Amino acid sequence: MPTGIAPPDPTTLIGRLRILLGDISYTSTDGMPTGEYAVFGDSELQAFLEEGATPLRAAAIATRRLALEYSASAQSIRTDDIAIDLRSRGKDLIEVAKSFTESANIQDAAQGIGPGVKPGDGPDVFLVAPSRRIPRVGDFVV
């Protein structure tokens, strides 16, 4: 079972990501401040955060990983009057991942960073123009 700090701490990036993903139910470990979670361990969540940089982008990455896992093990079972169809879980999770990505893009645009922001739109965005010559002292105006 995946382990992590329990209960989730909403003041940390890992805690915020865990809450976004809804992976908050845990079984306590004997006398330890950790617990066993249903889906993700803290080390996995940390890796998603390192790849995605923000909780929303990390949630998109984590959800895509789950979609891949569920798609690979998808099956449909029918017996008598009972039917279980798990084939669409991967597709559904891809839609959730897209919504996390869209929310992250909106958040980034509001801060003047991220995809879709044009140079000059935000305070932290600038262009670096490649040049094949070495700059000279008079090239820069201060």
Report on this model:
- The protein is of the alpha+beta class and 142 residues long.
- It has one domain.
- It is 43% helix and 13% strand.
- The protein contains 4 helices and 5 strands.
- It has helices at 13-21, 42-52, 55-72, 89-111; strands at residues 3-5, 26-28, 34-37, 76-79, 82-85.
- A 3-stranded antiparallel sheet has the order 1-3-2, with no helix packed on it. A two-stranded antiparallel ribbon has the order 4-5.
- The termini are far apart.
- The mean pLDDT is 83.
Compact summary:
With 142 residues, the chain is of the alpha+beta class. The protein has four helices and five strands, in the order βαββααββα.
Distance between the termini: 58 Å
Shape: extended
Runs in which pLDDT lies below 50 for 5 or more consecutive residues are none
**Which oligomerization state do the chains in this entry correspond to?**
single chain
State the domain count: 1
Structural class: alpha+beta
- Strand order within the widest sheet? 1-3-2
Major beta-sheet overview: 3 strands, antiparallel
Strand percentage lies at 5-15%
Helix-strand pattern, N to C?
Answer: EHEEHHEEH
Count of alpha/pi helices: 4
Query: Radius of gyration over alpha carbons?
Result: 22 Å
Helix content: 40-55%
* Count of β-strands: 5
Average pLDDT taken over every residue: 83
